[in-house]
């Protein structure tokens, strides 16, 4: 009969092979943390799926909305950065902050006024973003391989990578339609992966 010493030394008598207690503890802790976020994962997944379906139904509208939102964000962040550079107490990097603020203000106004041309520029940026995001999700999913939701994360990464390359291939001709459409597809896959991860996570202890 195997004693507890054998298990403490890294040998599992049931399976007949070594195991790493530290790795098992880390895995259990990761699953416990995932369980605590179960509700947020499911809610985020549902919202992402709904946004994806709306974007696929009204691609041109979502393309313009994306440009307008990015323009508003750039304008507000630029004004804040410029204000901090002019009136902030810290003088370090003041010139850089001021120039950065001016660039964001100009970019924000451009996106708000010239939404059509802004969509073309954003389509190129989104292409790069989806490509990088796809590589990141694929690597993250492979690291989590063994968990039931890991496969969906890899699928999401592959979809993001393919969509990013498709936007670049059709750029700039179909940017107005394809930006909102492919954003919707990516949002749909992201929501599905979040749902799969949330539903497969253990329920938190009461």
**Helix percentage range:** over 70%
**Strands side by side in the biggest sheet:** 1-2
Q: Kindly report how far apart the N and C termini lie.
A: 37 Å
Radius of gyration: 23 Å
Based on helices, strands and strand pairing, what is the structural class? mainly alpha
- Can you tell me the number of structural domains? 1
Stretches where pLDDT is under 50 for at least 5 consecutive residues are 1-19, 22-27
- The tally of beta strands, per DSSP, is 2
In one word, what is the shape? globular
Order of helices and strands: HEEHHHHHHH
Q: State which percent range the strand residues make up.
A: under 5%
Largest sheet data = 2 strands, antiparallel
Q: Tell me the number of helical segments per DSSP (H or I, 4 or more residues long).
A: 8
* Mean pLDDT, all residues: 75
Describe it.
The chain is an all-alpha fold. It has one domain (40-200). It is built from 8 helices and 2 strands. It has helices at residues 4-8, 21-36, 38-57, 59-87, 94-113, 115-143, 150-170, 175-200, and strands at residues 11-12, 17-18. Strands 1-2 form a two-stranded antiparallel ribbon. Strand 1 and strand 2 form a beta hairpin. It is globular and about 50 Å long. The protein starts with a helix and ends in a 6-residue tail after the last helix. The model is unreliable at 1-19 and 22-27 (pLDDT under 50).
What layout of secondary structure does this protein have?
Elements: H1 4-8, E1 11-12, E2 17-18, H2 21-36, H3 38-57, H4 59-87, H5 94-113, H6 115-143, H7 150-170, H8 175-200
Antiparallel strand pairs: 1-2
Helix pairs in contact: 3-4, 3-8, 4-5, 4-6, 4-8, 5-6, 6-7, 6-8, 7-8
């Amino acid at each position: 009969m195997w004693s507890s010493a054998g298990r403490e030394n890294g040998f599992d008598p049931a399976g007949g092979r070594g195991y790493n207690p530290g790795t098992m503890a880390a895995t259990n802790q990761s699953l416990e943390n995932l369980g605590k976020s179960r509700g947020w994962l499911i809610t985020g997944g549902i919202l992402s799926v709904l946004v994806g379906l709306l974007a696929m139904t009204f691609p041109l509208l979502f393309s313009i909305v994306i440009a307008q939102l990015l323009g508003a964000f750039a304008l507000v962040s630029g004004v804040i950065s410029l204000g901090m550079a002019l009136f902030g107490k810290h003088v370090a990097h003041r010139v850089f902050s001021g120039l950065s603020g001016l660039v964001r203000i100009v970019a924000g106004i451009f996106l708000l006024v010239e939404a059509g041309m802004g969509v073309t520029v954003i389509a190129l940026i989104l292409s790069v973003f989806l490509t990088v995001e796809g590589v990141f999700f694929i690597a993250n999913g492979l690291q989590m391989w063994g968990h039931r939701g890991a496969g969906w994360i890899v699928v999401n990464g592959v979809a993001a990578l393919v969509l990013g390359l498709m936007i670049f291939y059709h750029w700039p001709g179909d940017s107005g339609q394809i930006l909102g459409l492919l954003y919707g597809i990516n949002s749909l896959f992201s929501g599905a992966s979040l749902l799969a991860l949330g539903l497969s996570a253990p329920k938190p202890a009461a």
